[in-house]
UniProtKB/TrEMBL annotation:
Protein name (record): Glycosyl transferase family 2
GO molecular function: glycosyltransferase activity
UniProt entry tagged with the keyword ATP-binding: no
Pfam families: Glycos_transf_2
Top-level taxonomic group: Bacteria
Protein family (similarity comment): Belongs to the glycosyltransferase 2 family.
Domain Glycosyltransferase 2-like: 6-155
Keyword DNA damage: no
Keywords per UniProt: Glycosyltransferase, Transferase
Length: 340
């Protein structure tokens, strides 16, 4: 069994593999590199086999998104190649840096309670600035809205060393996620119903309910292009983010007033729809409406998951106790360090 396996999920991402895979291989620190291809329709697989013979290629039968794709890929790593004690899951559009693995591996080895960890995520095209997908570690407020150290909604901080510490966070980004393999498989991996977006936050929430921890490591840095598979302007991304946020909140909230929170979310999502409408983005408005109907249609399955998770729970998990929407848009608190 390897200590670490580097596993990249690919779907029609040949251009990113061509650009970023050489750096991953050069900075793999002797650990095996896998690319799991989600039935790409470009020539990703033939390109990999011809240009990167050292990479272990896993061909998946279909595109099941980030969640289902990584579930299948990591199962294949375990069954076909003997597995690893830890996995790192960098997006295909991640540019790694020398020494990016060692600090996180040291954290994982020193503290068996850590189930997931992330490096600092900077923007590839703005190298001093934190990137949207994870920044320096994420949190969730009591209504299910997410934010990060270094990025709150559309405000992005420059990395000036203010988050160079190693510390627990609520969620670690799926853009470059390190996970403890036995915990990943023990928990059934990601919820494949999410397809993509927020499945890693849902998983981080679930493992904390079992007593594990999630950390961010300030000594490791990578750069992320972002939107490599699904651009932020695509209404499909809006749909997945809004739907999956509701899925996550309903499944995992273990306190009182669940439906009060859901109804409050309905109001706030309605307000955000008006903002989209003001900008003429009517397809995003339709995506939010569809997301809510998809949530209601999926309630029977979510209810079963909720019950099972409550039976398994050993640790109470604390969310950020105030509304990040209120603090950002009304109180004008734009950065993590300004928050209560």
């Amino acid at each position: 069994m390897d200590t670490l396996a580097i596993v990249i999920l690919n779907y029609n991402g040949k251009r990113y593999l061509e650009t970023f895979l050489p750096s991953v291989i050069a900075n793999a620190e002797g650990f095996p590199v896998y690319v799991a291809d989600s039935a790409s329709t470009d020539d990703s697989v033939s390109f990999l086999r011809a240009q990167f013979p050292s990479v272990r290629v896993i061909q998946l039968a279909s595109n099941e998104g980030y969640a289902g794709g990584y579930n299948a890929a990591l199962a294949s790593v375990r069954e076909q190649y003997g597995g690893a004690r830890y996995y790192v899951l960098p997006n295909s559009d991640i540019d790694v840096t020398p020494g990016w693995i060692a600090p996180i591996l040291q954290l994982l080895e020193a503290n068996p309670a850590i189930a997931a960890c992330q490096p600092k995520i900077r923007a590839y095209d703005r190298p001093r600035q934190f990137e949207h997908a994870g920044a320096a570690g994420g949190f969730v407020d009591y209504l299910g809205y997410v934010f990060c150290r270094g990025r709150v909604f559309a405000t992005f901080e420059d990395d000036l060393g203010q988050y160079d510490d190693n510390r627990p966070v609520f969620w670690a980004t799926g853009a470059c996620l390190f996970v403890r393999a036995d915990v990943f498989h023990q928990t059934g991996g990601f919820d494949s119903a999410f397809f993509a977006h927020m499945e890693e936050i849902d998983w981080c929430w679930r493992v904390q309910r079992l007593g594990y921890q999630v950390w961010a490591c300030g000594q490791s840095v990578v750069y992320h292009v972002g939107g490599g598979t699904l651009h932020k302007s695509n209404p499909r991304k809006t749909y997945l983010n809004y739907r999956n946020s509701l899925y996550m909140l309903y499944k995992n909230w273990s306190g009182d007033w669940l439906w009060g929170r859901i109804l409050f979310r309905l109001v706030l999502d309605g307000v955000s729809s008006l903002l989209f409408l003001k900008e003429g983005q009517w397809r995003d408005v339709l995506a939010i409406i569809q997301a809510h109907f998809a949530f209601y249609g999926h309630l029977p399955q979510l209810r079963q998951q909720r019950r099972a998770l409550r039976q398994q729970q050993t640790t109470e998990v604390k969310l950020y106790p105030r509304s990040i929407v209120w603090e950002y848009f009304v109180e004008g608190k734009k950065t993590y360090r300004e928050l209560t």
